[in-house]
């Protein structure tokens, strides 16, 4: 079965958890540059998630698009870092598991709020998607995006590369007023627009919501569109402690929240910031028990 068929079946599927905060826990800077500078550490995190019970690994390539790399002076070759990311994730998956190419924001804004036109965003996402496809991913996940227009650019760019499935997920700041992103997009508006753009699944990840609040966004989306819904919340709402952002939700409480997301209509679930292989393993035990 290919990944597109798995997603379309709508049976619950478990994705992995956070990469960035796991790298930070090892004392490394967060980011895809570690695919080249610390490949063993990245591979070990992938392997831990693969062993925790998930069916889909995501590459460590979140912001490795040309606009982000250039404007943030990351100092890596875009094609090389994405190929490396795909290869590291692929090396960790046993038979029956899949790899999705992870894509996210450029870190810049579209006109009229910023200096970039949609064509520039489309081109930078298409370049990244082409490298990930060359690296052998089974599909793409566009996630942790704050602006619906940027997410639409990414989805359309991925679809322009070929027939691989695309999951598109935005981050929400509140569940009030129909759920809102930082740019004011509602959950219903977001789900409909992404599905119309060709996303094979839509959803919610990261942001300022805990897992139970995430379930409320899932419920709105599942009523708005017919495509499968993704939920990948953080390990609780972020807290600032001694100048550091901390996510302190236990694996047990996180898994209970994911169960709420499944009941609300999510068929694709996993974790974002602050989650670990322990969180994903607990979700596997609670939501995907072995008969």
Helix fraction by DSSP (H/I, runs of at least 4) = 40-55%
Strand order of the largest sheet: 1-10-7-6-5-4-3-2
- Count of DSSP-assigned helices: 12
The rough form would be described as globular
Uncertain segments of ≥5 residues (pLDDT<50)? none
Tell me the radius of gyration: 17 Å
Count of separate structural domains: 1
Q: What average pLDDT do the residues reach?
A: 95
Count of extended strands? 10
* CATH superfamily placement: Homocysteine-binding-like domain
Strand content: 5-15%
* Helix and strand sequence: HEHHHEHHEHEHEHEHEEEHEH
CATH class: Alpha Beta
Structure description:
With 291 residues, the chain is an alpha/beta fold. The protein has one domain (3-287): Homocysteine-binding-like domain (TIM Barrel). 45% of the residues lie in helices and 14% in strands. It contains twelve helices and ten strands. The protein has helices at 3-9, 20-25, 34-37, 39-52, 66-71, 78-92, 118-134, 148-161, 187-196, 211-224, 251-264, 277-287; strands at residues 13-14, 56-58, 98-103, 139-145, 166-170, 201-205, 229-232, 239-241, 244-246, 268-269. Strands 1-10-7-6-5-4-3-2 form an eight-stranded parallel beta sheet, sandwiched between helices. The chain has a two-stranded antiparallel sheet with strand order 8-9. Helix 10 runs parallel beside helix 11 (251-264). The chain starts with a helix and ends with a helix. The mean pLDDT is 95.
